[in-house]
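Much of our argument rests on the idea that a fold can be written as discrete symbols. Part of our work consisted of pairing the sequence of a single chain with a tokenised description of its backbone. The amino acid sequence and the backbone structure tokens for this protein are reproduced below.
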Amino acid sequence: MTPTLVRHQSHAETSTRTAPGNRARDWAEIQERMLAPLYEAVYDRLELGAGTRLLSLGCGSGLALLIAAARGARVTGVDTDLERLALARTRLLPESGSDAGRPAGHPRLLAGDPSAARPADGTPYDLITAFTPIGCSFDDGEGVVAALRSALPLAARGSTVVLTGWGPPERCATAPVLRVAERLSDRDRAPRTGSWRTSGRDDLEELAFRAGLNPDGSGRVACPFGYADTDSAVRGLLSTRLFDAAVRATDRAQVEKEVAQALHPHRRGDGTIWMPNVFRYLVCTT
């Protein structure tokens, strides 16, 4: 699966789509697919299949779960974003939008802390994934560590855990665009949470050690960000939550304007936006 160029949207429409539900849909329809090569590469490496019992932390709108379920895995996802989770339910539980009362083996989608995802049949998970890439903000690993500490008691000893992060800035064409968030956040001395920072070579390993995991291999995956036009790119990028602090420090219209300007070097002759990126994953054992 590769990133797909999405349909054209007018800038006027972009500026009005600020409600949480709209942003969640922008994530599901525009941005989430950009990470599909990362999901596929991890699943290929782990030979994910019918025998896998997967717990996805921060499952979002469910694309990674959908890919895993198509390979035969028994999947459970947890997330604190109710809007994204609702979209995941429409993807994985289309009949009712709910997993209540479903027999064992069907996808489970749960809101809140990972500790709520205790397997219904008592059989522990053998794979836990954290597919939200770290490496953009100064404390974006904190939430991952907390989620892992809640989830690890639900996994069997020796289970696999996968952590993911952005690659080096020089390998990520999106890095200068994300730095707009840092600049606008700092403008009014807003907190630096959510702003781009330089990725550290050992960030994922340090996170693994903090969570009590043993690193056991890693890989890099090309995940280009491709959009049909600038407006779609702005909507997709703002749906990542990485610009939230900048929006609070200024306003959404200002952030949209400056992100659009930062995207200009990546605009091709036909109006599409194309930004090559590299993401990294770390395979660990419990």
Observations:
- The chain has a mean pLDDT of 87.
